[in-house]
Amino acid sequence: MNEETQILQINPVLPVGNMQESIDFFENKMGFKNVYDSSNYNEEGQELDYAVMCRQNCCIHLQLFKDIRPDFQPQIKFQVKNITPLFEEYRSKGLLDHQPTLRETPWGTREFAFYDPNNMAITFFEGV
Fold it and tell me: Which domain holds residue 27?
């Protein structure tokens, strides 16, 4: 028997121009904790370009953009439990024609993504 997917959280991805300054702001001013960043999977010497900042059950993802354009669209990430039924549902509706399988990431998630009509990325993931 397949269980239904349970949506656990929504995680916005915010563009930042200076990663360390943003991490410091969220940690020191807002009381968030850097629970995971790209130093965990980047090759040596590669710039820190991603961080997950959490406080209680609220997480904000920070992604480095050197030149943030005014037309930049933020991303939305949904953390889920039991991702496979939701993946199959959305694939059957034609939302995942560009991504035929669940992706296993170097940072320990299983995920899939698609774009809404406004070209905003919507990602569903489990793990981490």
Answer: 6-127
Query: In which element (H, E) is residue 88 found?
Result: helix 83-92
DSSP string, 15-53: EES-HHHHHHIIIIIT--EEEEEGGGTSPTTPPP-EEEE
Whole-model pTM over 0.70: no
Query: Tokens 């549902």 sit at which residue?
Result: 89
pLDDT by residue for the chain (128 residues), tens digit each?
568 999 888 888 888 888 898 898 888 887 889 999 887 777 787 888 999 999 888 898 998 887 766 666 778 888 899 999 989 988 888 888 777 789 999 889 999 998 876 577 888 899 86
State how many domains the chain has: 1
Q: Is residue 39 part of a domain?
A: yes
- Report the CATH number at residue 89: 3.10.180.10
CA nearest neighbour of 113 among 78, 81, 82? 78
1 within some domain = no
Residue 62 burial (CB count, 10 A):
25
